[in-house]
Amino acid sequence: MHTTILVTGATGTVGCEVVKQLSVQDGDIRVRAGVHSIIKGENLKRLPGVEIVEMDFEDQESLHAAFTHVDKVFLITPFAKDQVHMAKTLVDEAKKKGVKHIVKLSAMGADAEPGIQLGRWHREIEKYIEDSGISYTFLRPSSFMQNFVNYNAESIKHDGKIYMPTGKAKISYIDARDIAAVGVEALTGEGHEGQVYELTGPEAISNSEAAQILSDVTGKQVEFVDVPEDAARKSMAEHGTPDWMADAMMELYDVYKAGNSNQVFDSVQAVTDKKPHSFRQFAQDYKQCFV
Protein backbone atom coordinates (compact mmCIF):
# COMPACT_ATOMS: atom_id res chain seq x y z
CA MET A 1 0.00 0.00 0.00
CA HIS A 2 1.44 3.36 -0.99
CA THR A 3 1.91 6.43 1.17
CA THR A 4 1.09 9.86 -0.26
CA ILE A 5 3.08 12.77 1.17
CA LEU A 6 2.12 16.37 0.44
CA VAL A 7 4.90 18.96 0.56
CA THR A 8 3.59 22.53 0.75
CA GLY A 9 5.87 25.34 -0.41
CA ALA A 10 7.53 22.76 -2.65
CA THR A 11 9.46 25.26 -4.79
CA GLY A 12 11.14 26.94 -1.81
CA THR A 13 14.64 26.40 -0.48
CA VAL A 14 13.74 23.56 1.88
CA GLY A 15 10.57 22.32 0.18
CA CYS A 16 12.37 21.64 -3.08
CA GLU A 17 15.03 19.58 -1.28
CA VAL A 18 12.36 17.58 0.58
CA VAL A 19 10.64 16.73 -2.71
CA LYS A 20 13.95 15.71 -4.31
CA GLN A 21 14.93 13.46 -1.43
CA LEU A 22 11.48 11.89 -1.09
CA SER A 23 11.44 11.12 -4.82
CA VAL A 24 14.41 8.74 -4.47
CA GLN A 25 13.26 6.93 -1.32
CA ASP A 26 12.79 3.19 -1.39
CA GLY A 27 9.24 1.93 -0.92
CA ASP A 28 5.91 2.91 -2.37
CA ILE A 29 5.95 6.65 -1.67
CA ARG A 30 4.03 9.09 -3.79
CA VAL A 31 5.06 12.72 -3.52
CA ARG A 32 2.58 15.52 -4.10
CA ALA A 33 4.36 18.85 -4.52
CA GLY A 34 2.17 21.79 -3.55
CA VAL A 35 3.04 24.89 -5.54
CA HIS A 36 1.57 28.36 -5.88
CA SER A 37 2.06 28.23 -9.63
CA ILE A 38 2.22 25.18 -11.86
CA ILE A 39 4.76 26.99 -14.05
CA LYS A 40 7.13 27.40 -11.08
CA GLY A 41 6.83 23.70 -10.36
CA GLU A 42 7.92 22.58 -13.83
CA ASN A 43 11.37 21.42 -12.69
CA LEU A 44 9.83 19.15 -10.06
CA LYS A 45 7.81 17.31 -12.71
CA ARG A 46 11.00 15.65 -13.93
CA LEU A 47 11.50 13.86 -10.61
CA PRO A 48 10.27 10.26 -10.35
CA GLY A 49 6.94 9.71 -8.62
CA VAL A 50 6.23 13.42 -8.13
CA GLU A 51 2.79 14.91 -8.80
CA ILE A 52 2.40 18.69 -9.01
CA VAL A 53 -0.68 20.29 -7.49
CA GLU A 54 -1.53 23.99 -7.44
CA MET A 55 -2.42 25.37 -4.01
CA ASP A 56 -4.10 28.69 -3.27
CA PHE A 57 -4.59 29.39 0.43
CA GLU A 58 -7.71 31.42 -0.35
CA ASP A 59 -9.20 28.78 -2.67
CA GLN A 60 -10.80 26.01 -0.64
CA GLU A 61 -11.30 23.82 -3.70
CA SER A 62 -7.58 23.83 -4.49
CA LEU A 63 -6.79 22.83 -0.89
CA HIS A 64 -9.44 20.11 -1.00
CA ALA A 65 -7.80 18.66 -4.11
CA ALA A 66 -4.29 18.95 -2.70
CA PHE A 67 -5.13 17.10 0.54
CA THR A 68 -7.34 14.37 -0.91
CA HIS A 69 -5.91 10.90 -0.09
CA VAL A 70 -2.85 12.43 1.60
CA ASP A 71 -1.32 10.44 4.46
CA LYS A 72 1.41 12.82 5.67
CA VAL A 73 2.33 16.47 5.18
CA PHE A 74 5.57 18.43 5.22
CA LEU A 75 4.20 21.82 6.20
CA ILE A 76 5.88 25.01 5.00
CA THR A 77 4.18 28.40 4.92
CA PRO A 78 5.65 31.48 3.22
CA PHE A 79 7.27 34.34 5.13
CA ALA A 80 4.14 36.46 5.03
CA LYS A 81 2.24 38.64 7.50
CA ASP A 82 -0.70 36.21 7.48
CA GLN A 83 1.40 33.04 7.66
CA VAL A 84 -0.32 31.92 10.88
CA HIS A 85 -3.73 32.11 9.22
CA MET A 86 -2.37 30.23 6.20
CA ALA A 87 -0.93 27.47 8.36
CA LYS A 88 -4.10 27.08 10.41
CA THR A 89 -6.10 26.77 7.19
CA LEU A 90 -3.80 23.97 6.04
CA VAL A 91 -3.95 22.17 9.40
CA ASP A 92 -7.76 22.36 9.36
CA GLU A 93 -7.82 20.82 5.89
CA ALA A 94 -5.37 18.13 6.97
CA LYS A 95 -7.62 17.23 9.89
CA LYS A 96 -10.69 17.05 7.64
CA LYS A 97 -8.89 14.68 5.27
CA GLY A 98 -7.54 12.39 7.99
CA VAL A 99 -3.84 13.21 7.60
CA LYS A 100 -1.88 11.01 9.99
CA HIS A 101 1.29 13.04 10.52
CA ILE A 102 2.53 16.60 10.02
CA VAL A 103 6.20 17.56 9.89
CA LYS A 104 6.36 21.33 10.30
CA LEU A 105 9.28 23.51 9.28
CA SER A 106 9.56 25.88 12.24
CA ALA A 107 12.49 27.98 13.46
CA MET A 108 15.11 27.82 16.17
CA GLY A 109 13.97 29.65 19.28
CA ALA A 110 10.27 29.28 18.50
CA ASP A 111 9.64 28.39 22.16
CA ALA A 112 11.69 31.26 23.60
CA GLU A 113 9.89 33.63 25.97
CA PRO A 114 9.08 36.33 25.10
CA GLY A 115 11.05 35.61 21.94
CA ILE A 116 10.87 37.54 18.70
CA GLN A 117 8.00 37.95 16.26
CA LEU A 118 9.25 35.27 13.86
CA GLY A 119 9.45 32.77 16.70
CA ARG A 120 6.05 33.71 18.11
CA TRP A 121 4.42 33.13 14.73
CA HIS A 122 6.00 29.70 14.44
CA ARG A 123 5.11 28.75 18.01
CA GLU A 124 1.48 29.73 17.51
CA ILE A 125 1.34 27.38 14.53
CA GLU A 126 3.06 24.62 16.50
CA LYS A 127 0.50 24.93 19.29
CA TYR A 128 -2.34 24.79 16.77
CA ILE A 129 -0.93 21.54 15.38
CA GLU A 130 -0.52 20.13 18.90
CA ASP A 131 -4.16 20.95 19.66
CA SER A 132 -5.36 19.43 16.38
CA GLY A 133 -4.75 15.89 17.58
CA ILE A 134 -2.66 15.08 14.49
CA SER A 135 0.69 13.40 15.13
CA TYR A 136 3.55 15.84 14.54
CA THR A 137 7.27 16.49 14.34
CA PHE A 138 8.66 20.02 14.56
CA LEU A 139 11.92 20.98 12.86
CA ARG A 140 13.55 24.11 14.29
CA PRO A 141 16.57 24.95 12.12
CA SER A 142 19.02 27.79 12.42
CA SER A 143 19.66 30.15 9.50
CA PHE A 144 20.08 28.46 6.11
CA MET A 145 23.44 28.35 4.34
CA GLN A 146 21.50 28.69 1.08
CA ASN A 147 20.56 32.23 2.10
CA PHE A 148 24.04 33.20 0.94
CA VAL A 149 22.90 32.10 -2.53
CA ASN A 150 19.41 33.56 -2.30
CA TYR A 151 20.37 36.98 -0.92
CA ASN A 152 24.12 37.51 -1.21
CA ALA A 153 25.23 35.82 -4.42
CA GLU A 154 24.99 38.94 -6.60
CA SER A 155 26.99 41.15 -4.24
CA ILE A 156 29.58 38.41 -3.82
CA LYS A 157 29.90 37.92 -7.59
CA HIS A 158 30.04 41.59 -8.54
CA ASP A 159 31.48 43.35 -5.47
CA GLY A 160 33.19 40.58 -3.54
CA LYS A 161 31.15 41.65 -0.52
CA ILE A 162 28.69 40.14 1.96
CA TYR A 163 26.48 42.90 3.33
CA MET A 164 24.68 42.01 6.58
CA PRO A 165 23.98 43.75 9.93
CA THR A 166 25.33 40.93 12.08
CA GLY A 167 28.59 42.29 13.50
CA LYS A 168 30.91 39.65 14.93
CA ALA A 169 28.06 37.26 15.71
CA LYS A 170 28.67 33.54 15.25
CA ILE A 171 25.77 31.65 13.69
CA SER A 172 25.33 27.89 13.44
CA TYR A 173 24.25 27.94 9.79
CA ILE A 174 22.64 24.77 8.45
CA ASP A 175 22.46 23.41 4.91
CA ALA A 176 18.88 23.08 3.64
CA ARG A 177 19.79 19.62 2.37
CA ASP A 178 20.32 18.52 5.98
CA ILE A 179 17.01 20.00 7.09
CA ALA A 180 15.32 18.07 4.29
CA ALA A 181 17.11 14.85 5.27
CA VAL A 182 15.77 15.11 8.81
CA GLY A 183 12.31 15.91 7.45
CA VAL A 184 12.34 12.90 5.13
CA GLU A 185 13.38 10.61 7.98
CA ALA A 186 10.58 12.05 10.15
CA LEU A 187 8.10 11.38 7.35
CA THR A 188 9.27 7.89 6.42
CA GLY A 189 10.93 6.52 9.56
CA GLU A 190 9.64 5.53 12.98
CA GLY A 191 9.77 7.08 16.43
CA HIS A 192 9.57 10.74 15.44
CA GLU A 193 6.04 11.40 16.64
CA GLY A 194 5.86 14.27 19.13
CA GLN A 195 9.54 15.11 18.66
CA VAL A 196 11.05 18.58 18.35
CA TYR A 197 14.42 18.75 16.60
CA GLU A 198 16.70 21.77 16.95
CA LEU A 199 18.81 21.67 13.78
CA THR A 200 22.19 23.27 13.13
CA GLY A 201 25.29 22.75 11.08
CA PRO A 202 28.45 21.32 12.68
CA GLU A 203 29.89 24.69 13.70
CA ALA A 204 29.06 28.30 14.46
CA ILE A 205 30.89 30.84 12.31
CA SER A 206 30.86 34.59 11.89
CA ASN A 207 30.13 36.17 8.53
CA SER A 208 33.76 37.28 8.40
CA GLU A 209 34.74 33.62 8.64
CA ALA A 210 32.12 32.74 6.01
CA ALA A 211 33.68 35.37 3.71
CA GLN A 212 37.13 33.86 4.21
CA ILE A 213 35.84 30.37 3.37
CA LEU A 214 34.16 31.71 0.24
CA SER A 215 37.43 33.44 -0.68
CA ASP A 216 39.34 30.17 -0.30
CA VAL A 217 36.83 28.18 -2.33
CA THR A 218 36.20 30.67 -5.15
CA GLY A 219 39.74 31.99 -5.46
CA LYS A 220 38.45 35.57 -5.31
CA GLN A 221 38.58 37.99 -2.40
CA VAL A 222 35.30 38.11 -0.48
CA GLU A 223 34.83 40.49 2.44
CA PHE A 224 32.11 40.87 5.05
CA VAL A 225 30.69 44.36 5.53
CA ASP A 226 28.81 44.94 8.77
CA VAL A 227 25.88 47.16 7.82
CA PRO A 228 24.61 49.67 10.44
CA GLU A 229 20.97 49.16 11.42
CA ASP A 230 19.76 52.43 9.87
CA ALA A 231 21.46 51.60 6.58
CA ALA A 232 20.00 48.08 6.63
CA ARG A 233 16.49 49.44 7.13
CA LYS A 234 16.99 51.99 4.38
CA SER A 235 18.19 49.31 1.97
CA MET A 236 15.20 47.11 2.78
CA ALA A 237 12.84 50.01 2.17
CA GLU A 238 14.51 50.77 -1.17
CA HIS A 239 13.93 47.15 -2.19
CA GLY A 240 10.26 47.33 -1.26
CA THR A 241 10.44 45.38 1.98
CA PRO A 242 7.29 46.08 4.04
CA ASP A 243 7.78 47.55 7.53
CA TRP A 244 6.53 44.43 9.34
CA MET A 245 9.10 42.29 7.54
CA ALA A 246 11.94 44.75 8.14
CA ASP A 247 11.06 44.85 11.85
CA ALA A 248 11.02 41.05 12.04
CA MET A 249 14.38 40.76 10.28
CA MET A 250 16.03 43.39 12.47
CA GLU A 251 14.81 41.52 15.56
CA LEU A 252 16.43 38.38 14.16
CA TYR A 253 19.72 40.19 13.54
CA ASP A 254 19.65 41.41 17.14
CA VAL A 255 19.28 37.80 18.28
CA TYR A 256 22.37 36.92 16.25
CA LYS A 257 24.38 39.79 17.72
CA ALA A 258 23.32 38.83 21.25
CA GLY A 259 24.96 35.44 20.73
CA ASN A 260 21.71 33.49 20.84
CA SER A 261 22.21 31.65 17.54
CA ASN A 262 25.60 30.09 18.12
CA GLN A 263 24.44 26.84 19.71
CA VAL A 264 25.43 23.65 17.89
CA PHE A 265 23.27 20.53 18.16
CA ASP A 266 23.92 16.99 16.94
CA SER A 267 20.30 16.36 15.89
CA VAL A 268 21.06 15.99 12.17
CA GLN A 269 23.49 13.12 12.73
CA ALA A 270 21.35 11.61 15.49
CA VAL A 271 18.29 11.43 13.22
CA THR A 272 19.88 10.69 9.83
CA ASP A 273 23.09 8.92 10.91
CA LYS A 274 24.97 11.33 8.62
CA LYS A 275 27.14 14.31 9.48
CA PRO A 276 25.68 17.68 8.45
CA HIS A 277 27.38 19.69 5.72
CA SER A 278 30.02 22.15 6.87
CA PHE A 279 29.98 25.68 5.48
CA ARG A 280 33.08 24.84 3.45
CA GLN A 281 31.31 21.85 1.87
CA PHE A 282 28.34 24.06 1.08
CA ALA A 283 30.60 26.70 -0.51
CA GLN A 284 32.30 24.08 -2.67
CA ASP A 285 28.98 22.58 -3.81
CA TYR A 286 27.52 26.00 -4.67
CA LYS A 287 30.75 27.56 -5.94
CA GLN A 288 29.28 28.42 -9.35
CA CYS A 289 26.68 30.65 -7.71
CA PHE A 290 29.41 32.96 -6.41
CA VAL A 291 31.79 33.27 -9.37
UniProtKB/TrEMBL annotation:
It comes from the Bacteria. InterPro entries: Ergot_Alk_Oxidoreductase, NAD(P)-bd_dom_sf, NmrA-like. Transmembrane segments: none annotated. Pfam families: NmrA. CDD domains: TMR_SDR_a. Residues 2-264 form the NmrA-like domain. PANTHER family: PRESTALK A DIFFERENTIATION PROTEIN A, PTHR43162. This is SDR family oxidoreductase. It comes from Pontibacter cellulosilyticus.
